[in-house]
Amino acid sequence: MERKTHYKMYKAGKNWVFAMLSTVALTGVMAMSGNTAKADAVAQSSTEQVAKVDTTGATTTQVEKATNNVNESNAAQTSVTTTTGQSSSNADATSSSQNNKQATTTSVVTSQNTLVANKDQASSIQSSVTQNSKKTETVINTADNASQKNVNGNWYLVDNNTGKNLTGFQEIKYQNKVVYYAPSNSQMQYGWQDINNNRYYFDTFDGAMTTGQKNINGNWYMFDAQGVLQTGFQRIESQNKTVYYSEDKDKLGQMQYGQKNIKGNWYNFDTYDGAMKTGFVTIPSQNKTVYYSEDKAKLGQMQYGKTKVNGKTYYFDTYDGAMKKGLTNINGNYYYFDNSGVMATNQKNINGNWYMFNDQGIMQTGFVHIPSQGKTVYYSKDKDKLGQMLYGQKNINGRWYNFDTYDGAMKTGFVYIPSQNKTVYYDENQSTLGQMKYGFQNINGKTYYFDTFDGSMKTGQKNINGNWYMFDDKGVMKVGFVTIPSQNKTVYYSEDKAKLGQMQYGKTGIKGKTYYFDTFDGAMAVGEKKIDNHMYLFDSKGIMQIGFHDLDGGKRTVYYSEAKSNYGQMLYGNQVINGKNYYFDSTTGAMRKGILVLDKANHTLSYVTNEGTVAKNMRYKIDNVEYIFNVAGVLEHSQGEANIAGNWYLFGDNNHVLIGFQTLKDGRKVYYSTDSGQMQFGQRNIDGHWYMFDTFNGAMKTGFVNIPEQNKTVYYATNGQMQYGQRNIDGHWYMFDTFNGAMKTGFVNIPEQNKTVYYAANGQMQYGKQNIDGHWYLFNTFDGAMYKGWLMSGNDWYYYNQQNGQLQTGSAVINGVGYNFDGNGKQILNYSIDYRYALPAGKGDDETAANNYIILHDVGVESGAAANARYFHDTVDTNEAYVTFVVGDGGKVYQVGRPGQVSWGAGRVANHNSPVQIELGRTYNSGQFWQDYVTYVRLARDMAGKYGIPLTLDAGGAGTRGIKSHYWVTKNIWGDHVDPYGYLSRFGVTQAKLAHDLLYGV
After folding, report:
1. 468 closest CA partner among 523, 544, 424
2. What is the pTM of this model?
3. Burial (CB count <10 Å: 0-12, 13-18, 19+), residue 892
4. Helical H runs in 265-395?
5. Rounded CA separation 819/572 (Å)
6. What is the pLDDT of residue 135?
7. Which domains does the chain have, with CATH numbers?
8. pLDDT in tens, 725-755
9. Alpha-carbon distance 658 to 660, whole Å?
């Protein structure tokens, strides 16, 4: 055996000491019949091996006491000094043969209840947790005189005095260990053992009871100084940590790591050394930061809800403890926690928006007054920007407010908003502070008006609820008289509280004076004014006048009533004023002098003298003729006509003057004015109708009358009334101007009848063919309407210009096609038509077709044009097929159907939309073909131009007008024909060429 001695510094109490560590290197194996047994190993041999324990032996093992100190490592170092080379860290093993027994006596010095620090002991610890389960103390016995004995691989401890096996906890001092011998079989125990309600662990090699920290099968455990397994929270001061040993049966006593829920509280233990974590801890796997209490009362417990840490408030999720950041809803209130989780109070700018939080951290919404800044602001209640300070114009609970765009301060008073070009007012009263005001507002004793829609302060004239008001350039409402130069008027805005500021209309009493304001625009009246069919007079200040007044520069004296019943009204007719009789003109109100006047009520004549008074009860000469006036002032006269002062009157019974239409004895029908009673002459408008009376004898005229001074001829009906518009007189139609009754001549357009007619010099409407100023026109023989467009007369075509209705002669381009006409207007064809096969009347279809298509065919068989025309003619009743024209046989045209009428060549729909259908006969002769083709194209263009059909070929669908092939009809409407393209291609004519030639001609 080789001994190596090392020295290791270790700490005992407060003093550093050196102890010699003896390491024995075995260079050989003790031979014991080939078996080696140790105290803590079970030998397979049945040979007894005895180790004697004797306190009086010469060999002494010195063992340090176990202390409560824990050094820097997990396992405490213990110094052991031994005097025998056979000792080891395990129980001494005695070598023997089967026939010899040797006992080694070792003295173990220890005192009872002193715990031994075995080689696996980590350190002594101090528990900070009182265990809930009641434990039985470990009673350790010290055998003063006993020997270890291995029987059949089991170790026993035998009392040397009695020879009995010792049981229970036994301290073996020289091996510096405590072991346990089971009372049931006295054998040394190993591994986990439950003894007297305590759990212990005995080394599986030497049976030594474990104390302190111990890693067993990869799990750390803690045993107290008496070897009892510890559970729950344990404080290890030397390592400055608190750990937790499981109290669960399946992992009892094991040190715990990571997050653990212990008795309803979450804790977190370091995943490396199991140290309980406190304070803020970030858990990356759960993307959260939590807080484990640092308070002794709840040390290490995960915290939830609102929590104060070092004077700052945090909030941890009530479900998983995650520290909240940002805006957080807690029980219906919003809080803000910054990036460190600290709860905000007071004003806080978050992502460029200002928020307000009260002393409890609750986010504020709505109006908040900030005294330190002398402002009221508003924090939004809207979900999308909850709590944010608002700026600019905002509608809050249906009210508009305005907050400064820089600091959010609520604006009050008058505010100009440039972007909307308006001034508004925000209330300065506390109850409605900052609210935009609408309508009439009294501000500092002045009245303003703010638009009820946008709150804009009004200036100038404003119609409010049907009343006009006036506001100056500062918005202050005006009252009283106001002149508006731009409208050249003076108006009055009421000063009465009940209608303050309202523009006044009609008669208005102001401070004892009467004024009149126009009922339409409120303009104050000055001068003469007709009101409700009565004339009034207002001076230059608008005050109503009464009494006598000279008007028209003194040419007219009138009188305005002073009576209350008709105050201010101009008076007419006979009037008694201050006891005198006056007469005022019934039209102008002018006081009359030296004139006969008609009393309209009594139909009598009176005379006003040159003094302006009415002649009564006297004889009075008028133009040197004496007349009698009775006491009532009535002129007395016999029945019949009378010429007085150059005017004719007609008297009836009792001095009554006859008025209106009267038939005299000589048969004349005359008219006496209802205003003056005098006979009328010339043109007179009576009850809205114009009449003509002979300028010599007053006889009413009827019939045609020429009025030279007005350069017109008019017509008076038998009732004498002038006629207007169209009138049939003696079987002839005339037209009289609807404004002045002048008889019209020449061309006249009558829009309501959509026609133009012609009235000859005598005013009579003309019919039929008429040569007017060297041009021929055609007028309908029934209603005189001028004809325009193409006309087929017999087999000849004529054209009356669409613009002026003149018969066309010479050359003209019509609807894109060139035409030639002779001197009589007949069209000169550039092809000839053979009518021998034309269907007679009653054959074929007599319905007029719509002018939408010209349909092109070819005959489909190898035959010429005449043959096909004859076939159509002869079989029309049986075969029920024909077209309008057949072209062929060297450029000839054979007519079968009548142009403009339905023919039967392409199906019902196409037939009814085609005024002309053309067949092309076939040939193999190229020269003949080109003659036929040119005529085919010319005929199609000619007919398209006549019916106003576009020259485009096969364009669009069924709703597109134009020239169409039978093949197009098949594709777009109905049928199975593909002509004429198959035949045309025989001579190299493509669809594109045909389209070109139809559009531009050949």
Report:
1. 523
2. 0.50
3. buried
4. none
5. 78
6. 57
7. 2-242 (2.10.270.10), 257-323 (2.10.270.10), 332-411 (2.10.270.10), 593-700 (2.10.270.10), 727-821 (2.10.270.10), 833-1000 (3.40.80.10)
8. 999 999 999 999 999 999 999 999 999 999 9
9. 7
